[in-house]
Structures are given as C-alpha cells and as structure tokens.
Amino acid sequence: MAESKREGAPELLSDVSEYQYGDAKPTWANVYLWPVVQRLTAKQEWGGRRALDLGCGNGATANMLASLGFEVLGVDPSTSGIEQARCAYKGIEFEVASAYDDLVARHGTFSLIVSLEVIEHCYDPRRVVRTIFNALEPGGLGIISTPYHGYWKNLALAVTGEWDRHLTALWDGGHIKFFSRATLRTMLEEAGFRQIEFLRVGRIPPLAKSMIAVVHK
Fold first, then answer.
1. What is the CATH number of the domain that holds 42?
2. How far is the C-alpha of 100 from the C-alpha of 12, rounded, in Å?
C-alpha cells in the first residue's frame, strides 16, 4: 500500500489496514447517517456529480451515492472491505488506498466528499482533513461524521458506567481519537475550511450518537 513516510513516524495505517469486513451490508450507523447525507446532497446545486467516499469500508455508502446519480470512487485501506465492495457493487470504482495517499495526483478533485465514521480510526486526523480539503473542488460539499462527544453525553457515560465500553479498547481496529465540535472545527479551520456547520444525529442532540461536519469550499 502506498504511503508517504516521515522519519520517526509510526506505521500510520498498520492497524486500520487490517480492519476486516465479512459482507457488503450497510452498518448500523447508516440508518441515521444516510438520510442526512441524502438531504444535504439534494439541497446542493451541482456542476459536476463526482463523489469520493473516503474510508468506504465495504462500499455500502458508495453504492448509496451512486444511486443518487454520482460517479463514485471509494477508497479504503482494508483489503477485505474493497474485495467485498467490488463483488457486491458493480459500476463503481473501488481502490485500496487511504487519506494518507496523494489522491488528488491520481484522481483529481471531487464535487462531493463523504467520510462517515472514519476519522476517529485514524492516527493522523489532521492529514485526513487536509486530504479532504485538497481533494474537494471549489464550490464542493464535504460531509464528515464521527461519534459525538459533549458535556451531557460525557456525563451520562460516566454516570451509567459506560465509559469503558464506549472507549472500545477491546475492538480491533476501533476508535483511537475522540472529537468534540470544538476539536474537529479546529482541525477543519487549520486545513482551510471557513464554511463549517455541525449537525447532531442518532438521538436527541445532547446525547447524539454522531455529529456531522458539513463543509463547503
């Protein structure tokens, strides 16, 4: 797998690349994430309809985007995920690659970039956000989701004794970064985004399962 190396840097993809997929079915999170993606894309005025599903996993979201009329490229470092995607979803381009690769040099820019429940699995999320910024064409729409953390949800997790389960230390390939709106906004602004909106989904807002950053370039 192609990856730019920095002296002294860890193998950034060594764990994520081993994430295993056994099928190409939508995940449980798609139930509350997809309706928002569909609503946001329906509101956008499109010049081109070229989409990148960054961290596409087993290809289910890429297939959903294709059903909306987008020409889709799905990339993921999981070989098993890409194999499942290629078998299940024909007519969509899938590639074993990641946000740490120079996707712009290989594929150009995109009018839509979707990255759902991916950034929390990445050792270098700043690099992920820079890739999204660089690969999004001017006027394009970016949709980035990650588990939500805020005061009331954090308090509820503490009071109910759910922190150990929530931190998912026993989940191979699981979450290694935990974001609030403030920390994700900081990374997005560092990358160059200025139009940033946050949505909370999956439960009532204070206890939301995920937050979605909606960005325009």
1. 3.40.50.150
2. 8
* Residue 7 located in a structural domain: no
Give the pLDDT score at 18.
Answer: 62
Average pLDDT of adjacent 10-residue blocks, the chain of 217 residues: 37 51 89 98 93 97 98 96 96 95 96 97 95 97 96 92 86 87 97 97 96 97
Q: Is residue 3 part of a domain?
A: no
CA–CA separation, 55 and 6 (whole Å): 22
Compute how many other C-beta atoms are within 10 angstroms of the C-beta atom of residue 108.
12
Backbone torsions φ then ψ of 49, nearest 5 degrees: -130, 60
78, 15 contact by CB (below 8 A)? no
- State the greatest distance between any 2 C-alpha atoms of the chain, in Å, as a whole number: 49
Look up tokens 């509101």; give the residue.
Answer: 43
The type of residue at 174 is G
Supply 63's token pair. Answer: 């297939």
Whose CA is closest to 98, among 17, 171, 30?
17
pLDDT of residue 104: 97
Q: Which two tokens stand for residue 159?
A: 């009071």
What is residue 19's predicted lDDT score, i.e. its pLDDT?
A: 76
| C-alpha span between 140 and 205 (Å, rounded) | 27
* pLDDT for position 168: 80
pTM above 0.85, yes or no: yes
Range of the domain at 118: 16-216
